[in-house]
Design a protein that fits this description.
alpha/beta; five-stranded parallel β-sheet
Length: 149
């Protein structure tokens, strides 16, 4: 069976590399094929890599607190580029200052992200949630394809 492919990286002007390397190792150990774009990744670089690799999901990290700015319009950009249905995930220290996580989550979900992870979210749980989302999406796609035929 084909491994699910994740495109990961740290968005915008954020150059925090340690967490990105941790995510790469954890996702790889959980059985994902990881395309790691590193740090200071633009929206188009994520999308280009997702298109080139046939990725199942894009996982955006932001540590420096400007994720709310850097991620704005990513879903719309995916739609424009023909991958509007790709699963989008974001996590880390996404905004400057202390905010209730429910508020942060709501902001990013309104931007079109499928899941939003706090900096303290358990990475094994993250892997399980992403794997389940990908499997559910594939199951729904297969069921829809069978109905159309």
């Amino acid at each position: 069976m084909k491994k699910s492919t994740l495109v990961i990286g740290v968005i915008g002007a954020d150059c925090h590399a340690v967490g990105n390397k941790v995510l790469d190792r954890v996702f790889t150990a959980c059985g994902f094929r990881v395309i790691n774009l590193g740090v200071m990744v633009s929206q188009d670089e994520y999308i280009d890599a997702a298109i080139e690799t046939g990725a199942d999901a894009i996982v955006v990290s932001s540590i420096y607190g400007h994720g709310d700015i850097d991620c704005l319009g990513l879903r719309e950009r995916c739609i424009e580029r023909g991958v509007g249905e790709i699963l989008l995930y974001v996590g880390g220290n996404l905004v400057v200052g202390k905010h209730d996580f429910a508020e942060v989550e709501s902001t990013f979900k309104a931007m079109g992200f499928d899941r939003v992870f706090s900096p303290s979210h358990d990475l094994d749980d993250v892997c399980q949630l992403i794997a389940n989302d990908i499997n559910n999406k594939l199951t729904n796609f297969r069921q829809h394809s069978e109905e159309v035929m």
